[in-house]
Design a protein that fits this description.
The protein is an alpha+beta fold. The protein has one domain (3-147): Cupin (Jelly Rolls, Sandwich). It is built from 2 helices and 10 strands; from the N terminus they run E-H-E-E-H-E-E-E-E-E-E-E. A hairpin with a 5-residue loop joins strand 6 and strand 7 (113-118). The longest helix is centred in the N-terminal third of the chain and has 14 residues, at 16-29.
Length: 148
């Protein structure tokens, strides 16, 4: 299979306080942040967050790619915050749920759909070019590691 859910995989989770501090810093520097509707946002570079760096180091140990990995932090302060819809990525992706719960619908190449509900510490691997859709279940923080 081109995707796999690992329950209770990662326990080094950044606090909400660290996420908000990183958001504040990046907004002040006018770098690396994209806002969605209704209090959703992405911090495109989680440098400076120790837990994100540890996750990057771990992913480099388990997955070889010639390009270095980057950790994005997705946060939604409301259950109806804006986020990406069904999409695909040009590299393999490791998604680690940090706070709250989220669903992902992953569509295999043959069209078969898989529905995963993730809680804090769960990690979902998705092979590049597979469509996947995050579905918010409430406020959340999600870390996403890709190679680009």
């Amino acid at each position: 299979m081109n995707h796999k859910l690992h329950k209770n995989y990662w326990n080094k989770i950044p606090s909400w306080e660290k996420i908000i501090h990183l958001l504040d810093r990046n907004v002040a520097l006018k770098t690396e942040v994209r806002f969605f509707d209704r209090l959703g946002f992405i911090i495109r570079n989680a440098n400076g967050v120790e837990e994100a760096q540890e996750l990057l180091d771990h992913i480099k140990e388990i997955h070889y790619e010639p390009l270095p990995p980057n950790c994005h932090i997705y946060a939604s302060l409301l259950s109806n915050s804006g986020t990406f819809k069904n999409h695909q990525d040009a590299s393999d992706v490791y998604i680690v749920q940090a706070h709250g719960n989220i669903r992902y619908i992953v569509t295999e190449e043959d069209g078969q759909k898989y529905d995963y509900t993730m809680g804090p510490g769960d990690m979902l691997y998705i092979k590049k070019f597979l469509f996947h859709e995050p579905i918010l279940l409430g406020p959340r923080v999600t870390m996403s590691v890709a190679f680009n």
